[in-house]
Amino acid sequence: MDEERNTPMDTRTLGTTGPTVSALGLGLMGMSDLYGDADEVESIATIHAALDAGVTLLDTGDFYGMGHNELLLRDALRGRNRDDAVISVKFGALRDVDGGWNGVDVRPAAIKNFLAYSLRRLGTDHIDIYRPARLPGDVPVEDVVGTLAELVQAGHIRHIGLSEVSAETLRRAHAVHPIADLQIEYSLISRNPESDILPTARELGVGITAYGVLSRGLISGHWTARRDTGGTDFRSYLPRFSGANLDRNLALVDALRTIAEARGVTVAQIAIAWVLARGETIVPLVGARRRDRLTEALGATAVTLTDADLAAIEAAVPADAVAGSRYDEAQMALLDSERA
Ligand SMILES: NC(=O)c1ccc[n+]([C@@H]2O[C@H](COP(=O)([O-])OP(=O)(O)OC[C@H]3O[C@@H](n4cnc5c(N)ncnc54)[C@H](OP(=O)(O)O)[C@@H]3O)[C@@H](O)[C@H]2O)c1
User: Fold this and answer.
1) Radius of gyration, CA atoms only, the chain
2) Which end of the chain is more exposed for a tag (fewer CB within 10 A), N or C?
3) Whose CA is nearest to atom 15 of ligand 1?
């Protein structure tokens, strides 16, 4: 039982073979990378607050802050019961000394090397869900999953996940070894997975961990056109956050705000509740890096959207209303999920 909220956190099971986790997961990426400066003390306090509220699913990547994110998680879990956390780790992305992106490596020896470093950094003998961040296509997905299956057999990882893959790739992967969950961007303004990927995951019994449910803050209700993202915030380079696209997208947020205010909740809570309402096998990952943001996000689990609410939301933010792609062109090209 969570003392602050006085209600137990709902749980969801990731597909037919995956672990049971909190209905909301916490994504740690912004605590180490990509979204400008983050405060380490506040980041750890946020992870602690999440665990205390019953959040069990903690998502990281070995390349987030080039190891920093895993070390942060290790610090946050010190003195806690390791088994209270379901640790999800992405691997594969290569960086250079300046933090630039340098391709993706998912060859078997590279996977085993990434895992060894992650286990050491995390201070644990197993990772609960281990997944390639991207599949560049030079190694067949069967080989990638075959290597991961060996690591399951050896007890180093408990479950296999994927990230940003197409329905066809998911089907091929699942034929080699059960996939616990597919991590993919899914939100009110990122609806692509609905046509093919979500139905296939449902058919196969694969869970979904949805990231970017607030579109990286754009549809959180806290983003404004005046926000200074500075040079270290990768959002300043994203098409949806720039120029006329930003104005159009913030107009959608204003439409959402009207609905949120009528319901007495916040824009972020409506956006998260909408993803929660899309299916019992979908677990939104929220990227809160401060306790106040986390508290707001957790409030979404208490928001039940009626059919009338859902219709109003759909009218305010039609499925294809967003302006701009979710990544720039080079990063879009790396997404198996976006390949025709
Ligand atoms: N598989 C993949 O390819 C992939 C890609 C990206 C992310 N991910 C994972 O998914 C996680 C979530 O992604 P994301 O951080 O982009 O998602 P998000 O939840 O859409 O965006 C998080 C950002 O929104 C802002 N925000 C405003 N109000 C918030 C609230 N109440 N709760 C939470 N955030 C609020 C915060 O920015 P400010 O703090 O600046 O206000 C926060 O950093 C990541 O941490 C990572 O683990 C996976």
Assistant:
1) 19
2) C
3) 287
